[in-house]
Amino acid sequence: MRGRGLWGVFRQRLRRLGFGANEYLISQQHLQIRAMSGDLAVVAKDKEASSKGTMQTQITTDPPRGTRDFPPEDMRMRTWLFDKFREVSRLFAFEEVDFPMVESEDLYTRKAGEEIVGQLYNFEDKGGRKVALRPELTPSLARLVLQKGRAQSFPLKWFAIGQCWRYERMTRGRRREHYQWNMDIIGVPGVEAEAELLSAIVTFFTKLNITSDDVGIKVSNRKVLQAVLEKYDIQPDSFAAVCVIVDKLDKLPREEIESELDKAGVPSVAIEGILQALTLQSFDDLEALIGAESGAVAELKQLFALAEGYGIQDWLRFDASVVRGLAYYTGTVFEAFDKEKKLRAICGGGRYDRLLSTYGGQDTPACGFGFGDAVIVELLKEKKLLRAFPHEVDDVVMALDDSLKIPAAGIASRLRSTGRVVELVIEKGKKMKWVFKHCETLKAKRLVLLGTTEWKEGKVLVKDLNLREQTVKTVDELIASS
Ligand code: HAM
């Protein structure tokens, strides 16, 4: 009796014993172990204890599907990555901002058919307000810009690092929560802003030893599609929906895209023209299609010229297939990809000059990007560029006798005040063998021991664990040598 059959019998028995469905589903593995030992009576006893409020609930120790815990080793890596995000943002003179994790749902319920809207973690709070866990940071940023109003001195150059929630189908590097690093420039209409952002992205890659052989950034401009739609006299109000549909070209079969465009009211001759335009990868072909005087051509050419100034031209390539799946982009759009094509987009962004007006403000030039924490780590692993992140301390301080705990605490404090990372052994009765092992685990540089003989003269034993040398020092000498 395996699988469903076995579980069915368990369920039936448990129900007879008076268990509710959620009571025995708390941990399937736990139930299985008990049931296999034929000890349903124990469960029944627990039930009795539970009704008296004395039983501890057996919970599953896994985080919810698609989410992560960050135990120390993962947290160290995360901190390192976020430090790099911050370092690069500051190099470009951006200021850090943050927003609430929960926002009003209507900040996200745009009507262009975006995937992100269908993936919302939304719920009603206890006050009956419709709220959602933020799936991205851009709407919050727009809200804050609106709230602060015109009193601010533009341009704003803001960056944020925040957790975002999307109920996604999980693939490598895509999960239901991720952290995103965003850099946004508000108030600059020209592509000089995009050039700064692209340069920041390249600076970040370079800091991680990723080269333009590993990663490329595809750049296009939504005005290309806009020009194509105008050519076919398609209403501007279907522009966002068309962008969202064609963004799915590499995920869905072409016929499905064609049928969606058809449903959106795009005539078949225009569908052909749109799909053709998306294959363009050279400025000459682009000019031939939409004319050299087109705004899209001018902006793209200017952006690529600026890229040469920054020395990042090797990283960029014009590729009209990049449209991006968010409805609010109005101009330049870009996405970084791994050249081996093993992973999903590493980061993406673009210009969104009309987002603020969709929230009731004035049109305000804006552009930015979002850079997730997941795909980049996959890439670093793939390229063997991810170093280890050990827990490291400078000194381990230990009293060899309980009576010396108080001076040991004093020495640890003095060492810490000089900036050294100090592990004070606070457990009792630890043997030297344990201490040496502990020093090894912590990759400690020094071991400072307080023994009764040396301490009578106000001295401590200092073991340099790298040089394997032992000296006896006064506390002042120890601090001076730190
Ligand atoms: P996005 O393309 O939806 O853009 O997300 C930006 C980046 O966040 C992606 O390229 C990827 O690195 C990461 N990301 C997105 N979804 C997931 C997921 N489910 N799991 C792991 N990583 C993910 C935006 O969110 C825009 N708001 C970016 C922006 C800022 N545009 C202008 N300013």
Give an overview of the whole structure.
- There is one protein chain.
- This protein has 482 residues and is an alpha+beta fold.
- The protein has 3 domains: 2-51; 72-382, 2-Layer Sandwich (BirA Bifunctional Protein, domain 2), CATH 3.30.930; 395-480, Anticodon-binding domain (Rossmann fold, 3-Layer(aba) Sandwich).
- It is 41% helix and 18% strand.
- It has 20 helices and 16 strands.
- The protein has helices at residues 3-16, 21-24, 28-36, 40-51, 72-91, 115-118, 138-148, 192-207, 222-231, 239-246, 254-263, 268-277, 283-290, 295-310, 355-358, 374-382, 405-417, 432-441, 452-456, 475-480; strands at residues 95-96, 102-104, 121-124, 130-133, 156-165, 177-186, 215-221, 316-318, 332-338, 347-351, 366-372, 395-399, 422-424, 446-450, 459-464, 469-474.
- The strands form 3 sheets. An 8-stranded mixed beta sheet has the order 1-5-6-11-10-9-7-8. A 5-stranded mixed beta sheet has the order 13-12-14-15-16. Strands 2-4-3 form a 3-stranded antiparallel beta sheet, with no helix packed on it.
- α17 links the parallel β12 (395-399) and β13 (422-424).
- The longest helix has 20 residues, at 72-91.
- The protein is elongated, with a radius of gyration of 30 Å.
- The termini are far apart.
- The structure holds histidyl-adenosine monophosphate (HAM).
- The site of histidyl-adenosine monophosphate has 24 residues, from β6, β10, β11 and α16.
- Residues 136, 138, 166, 168, 173-175, 178, 180, 182, 184, 326, 345-349, 368-372, 374-375 line the site of histidyl-adenosine monophosphate (HAM).
- L-histidine binds at residues 136-138, 166, 180, 184, 324, 328-329.
- InterPro entries: aa-tRNA-synth_II, aa-tRNA-synth_II/BPL/LPL, Anticodon-bd, Anticodon-bd_dom_sf, His-tRNA-ligase, HisRS-like_core, HisRS/HisZ.
- Residues 51-70 are annotated as: Disordered.
- Belongs to the class-II aminoacyl-tRNA synthetase family.
- Keywords: Aminoacyl-tRNA synthetase, ATP-binding, Ligase, Nucleotide-binding, Protein biosynthesis.
